[in-house]
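>> received
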Amino acid sequence: MPDTHPTGAPEGAPSQSARSPLRVLLAGGGTAGHVNPLLATAAALRDPATGGDERAELLVLGTKEGLEDRLVPEAGYDLAYVPRVPMPRRPTGDLFLLPRRLQKAVIASREAIERVGAQVVVGFGGFVSTPAYLAARQAGVPVVIHEQNARPGLANRLGAGWAAAVALTFASTRLKASKGRTEVTGLPLRPAIGAARARGRGAAALGLDPQAPTLLITGGSLGAQHLNEVIASSLGRLPSDLQILHLTGRDKDAPVRAALERAVAEGAAAPDMADRYHVMDYLSAMEQAYACADGVICRSGAGTVAELTALGLPALYVPLPIGNGEQRLNAADCVAAGGGRLVPDGDLAADDIVSFTDLLADPEARVAAAEAAASTGVRDAAARLAALIRSVAAEPTAGAGSVAAPDAEGLESPESAGDPADQEVK
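>> returned
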């Protein structure tokens, strides 16, 4: 491997202005969890401040059904489409259609590679990445994989077999490039998150006291019904000087407001609790909430954990009680370092809420937890991943040769057996 500058360029390489623009196909879509890191990486590839080149030619591979169909054009990037490839989790008739569907997606991915003249294909997991990885291997184009979860998905496990590089969000993730290099880059974050510590501005926007210790509670855009109920049961036991911002989830705010009013009226909560407890159903500008927060009670999706650790925010993580357990694993490194606590959703009780809020009310304990959380976070992940991509593009590569798409049996996920629903290949 050649020595590299922090920008990812090999030692002795021509200056950026003398080189041809980098050409990259970025594959990822379906959910914001796949699209946002992709867009952050694309921005870093074009940002001169992080070693990028404004001339970089970028093409995003996605579907017409996913969030990328809106978010990618809004961000100013070209989008090529690939057909969705449902992955049957049960032996139904759809299983026999998988090879044909996958082959069509591989062909569309190969056309996208040729359209941009890609020097590198970068995948962020999800069903879009599987055909992109296969097409890149056929075309002899190196692959860079970013795995955001502590438990890697099927597409990235497949692609890691021939990837030039694998980038991880969490050091504990059990995935590595079989023949290439593996690096911990962190999760590329939206630029707004990097500026999320402007506490005064955030507090002004949300009507909060910037001086008061503040707890942020969020279950994501859809909310978390059980979390909301447990919070309501703990209202009378929260620290007297604690300010709370509770994002209940869309259309889930009414029961929380009613519980707050009832607790104050019945004397279970202090009279000023109504002034200190702020309820919203949804907030799109989460950086404002992060700017005000001293601690967070939340789920432990990869994006959430990466954002909170990058900002040094201690958290009580309540993993989503579905899926294959990746949310529990996502928070493992932070919890082990002392930057967070983890309680399964079904076990969450008012005592857990009160214990965490007592920590936030103790300045010394709060600072120690914040430092521990920050020790596991990465703030410049997008720049790190962009440098890795440039480094791979600068290396001489040999054609990997043409391969046929794997059969349906070879794509079966071990953890998917017995699940009732179909899933995309991811």
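>> Confidence is low (pLDDT under 50) at residues 1-6, 398-426.
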